[in-house]
Each structure stands twice: as structure tokens, then as C-alpha cells.
Amino acid sequence: MPARTILLYPHQTLKEVCRSVSAFDADLEALIRDLVDTMRAGPASVGVAAPQIGVPLRVCVVDVSASKLGKDNNHGLLVMVNPEITLREGAAVMREGCMSVPDYTGDVERATDITVRFQDGDGAAHEIEASGFEAVAIQHETDHLDGMLFLDRITSLKTGLFRRKKYK
Amino acid sequence: MEGSGDTAVHCAVTIIGKDRPGIVAGAAEVLYRLGCNIEDSSSTMLGGEFAMILIVSREKPFSKSRLLEEFKTFGESMQVSVFVRTLARSEIRHEALAGELCMVSVYGSDRPGIVYRVTKELADRNINISDMNTKLVGTDENPVYVMMLEAVLPDGMEIEDVSRLLEKLKKELNVEIGVRSVTPVSL
User: Fold this and answer.
1) pLDDT tens, B9-59?
2) Given this model, what pLDDT does residue B186 score?
3) b/e sequence A43-78, b meaning 16+ C-beta within 10 Å
């Protein structure tokens, strides 16, 4: 399957709490492949969550290894099924943008160090510690699985700004 | 987007007056009744004044005088001044902001020339300020000036270049200056 179209807000799938995955079957395999292809196709994209391509299941992919901010500190391609962040430590603010909310960015505070538990595409359990940009990306993508957008987390009005906007 | 078709006409509206509850709602009501879209806007309290800047559009062209007329009752009841500038088609189209985005923080004992000296250095290098606010804080005996601005760097310029550029002003103005990247990350 080629890269899928990224849904844009106000598509309501983006605000759904997604269902856990229980069947580790060919459908899941296809979904994971689509998520990876979609992430690779996106301009400078470092992660995609299943609801962003219209599938309300708890699956997301993250890969910050090719990005300037994450290239020295990452786990490569992470395929995360039923991910759960079990520990959050530290706090740092980063200006985030999201493919599902074009033309808007805002400052969001995230944990700097996290522990995340998840299953891979075959159902095997994993637990990793992530930090820095990879940790931010994981928190942003797992938020999608709970119907949370970065807009729900912007705290600073002074810097929540329109960017790269063109008047039509 | 609603109201952004070919026939839309844009205006810049500036509203300022002594702060009180109801200014935003009052202005928004006038625009709503006129069928205007508030496309981009920014409003804040400055001193005891509340200031609004709005880019508004409408499907059908409207005149500046008509808009001002509609704001008359609102302006009088809220005791605010309303200014309108019609925007030509060439003005409403602007280039996408590319390049690194940086935040510059400047603070220190108040003295004349802080804003001028810092922004002159930036302007001379074609660094484009996209957002700025300043505030006079501290006590009467020890007034402190705080300036925060965001700027888009020209292609090829790095955050470190801006740090170096502003370094000499620290001594000249006796202020602290920090420069950090706030370039958005795409997730």
C-alpha cells in the first residue's frame, strides 16, 4: 500500500479514544506498513498514529533517526501497538506542529525522559526508555491514540502563533 | 475557509481603549453582524489599555467608512478608538516564513535605546521580527526592562550567528541577552 492521506482536523476520528489492538493479524501488519509508508512520505515527519489515517486503533510509529534533533539519540524505527507511557520525568517546552493541524504551531511542555511499554506487530512485549526529541515524538503520537491534539496542551499564549500561513 | 474566496476583501482593524470586560465581545459582535470573518488576530493588555489587531475579511467588498460607521456605537459605549485600514490584494498575500526561528530575550536595568539598538542590529542583517513584546517591570527605584522577540533568520544564518551578533550589545547596553531556537518541530 502506498502512503495514506493524513486526516486533517476537524475529522472526528482525530478526537476519538482509540481501541486497543487484540488481533495481531494480517490487517494489523497492513496497517503498520501503511503507517510507516505514510510517515516516510511526509515532509520531515517523525511519527504517525493510526487515527491520523482514519483507523481508531492504538497503533503508532515513530522514527526520529533521520531528524536533526533526534539523530544522536533514538531507537530507530519504533512500531508501537498498545503503547503505554509508564514513567514521565523532567519537563521541557518545544514548539510543535502536527500534520493533522496544518499552519499552526504552539509551545507544548512534555516530559524529557519517559519509559514506554508496548507490543510490536507480532504481539511481543517491549519496554524502552526514551529521552529528548524521541520522547517528545512518542508523547505526541501516543496522545493521538487518546484523541488529544497538541492544541489541547498549549500553555503559552504569547508564543502560540500562526506560522507559514498564506492568505488565500 | 469561509470568506476567503476571490471576492473577499480584507481590512486591518485596530481597536484600543482603557481595559474593561466586554471589549472583545463587543467588537466581535459588530464584525459578526456585518458578516465578517476574523481571520488572524492578536489582542493583549498593554499598561491599562486593551489593544486588538485583527485581519478581517468579507465575501462582499465593504468600504472603510461603512465599517467605521458600524463600529461607532460600540466605540462610544466602550470608549475605545477604532482604526481601519483596507488591504490591497497585494498586501494580503505574503511569502511563507522560511528559515530558522529564534527567540531573543533581552533584559536589564531600564535605559534608553534598548529596543532600538537590538532591533537595528537585526534589521541590518535582514532578520525579520515576527513577534515582539516589551514590558517595564521592577520598582520605581530600579526599573527593569524586558524585551522578548521572535525573529526569522535569513537562509543560511544560524542561531549562533545571532548570539555572536548581539554579544557586543550586552556590554554596551548593560543587559542580558539570550538567543535560542524555537523552530517548530513537525510531528
Assistant:
1) 899 999 999 999 999 999 999 999 999 999 999 999 998 999 999 999 988
2) 85
3) eebbbbbbbbbebbbbbbbbbbbebebbeeebbeeb
Main-chain phi, psi angles of A75, to 5 degrees: -105, 20
Query: Considering only CB atoms, which chain B residues are within 8 Å of A47?
Result: 187
Last residue of a domain, one of B59, B92, B125: B92
Q: For A41-69, what is each residue's pLDDT tens digit?
A: 987 899 999 999 999 999 999 999 999 99
User: Is the peptide bond between A10 and the residue preceding it cis, with omega within 30 degrees of 0?
Assistant: yes
Give the minimum alpha-carbon distance from A33 to chain B in angstroms, rounded to a whole number: 18
Picking from B64, B92, B120, the residue at the C-terminal end of a domain is B92
Q: Catalytic site residues of A?
A: 141
**The domain that contains B139 carries what CATH number?**
3.30.70.260
The ipTM (two decimal places) reads 0.76
List chain B residues with CB under 8 Å of A46.
Answer: 185-187
Write the single-letter amino acid at A58.
Answer: R
For chain A, the residues whose C-beta falls within 8 A of a C-beta of chain B are 42-47, 67, 69, 94-99, 105, 107, 133, 136-137, 140-141, 150, 158-159, 161-168
Residue B78, helix vs strand vs coil = helix
B45 and B20, same structural domain? yes
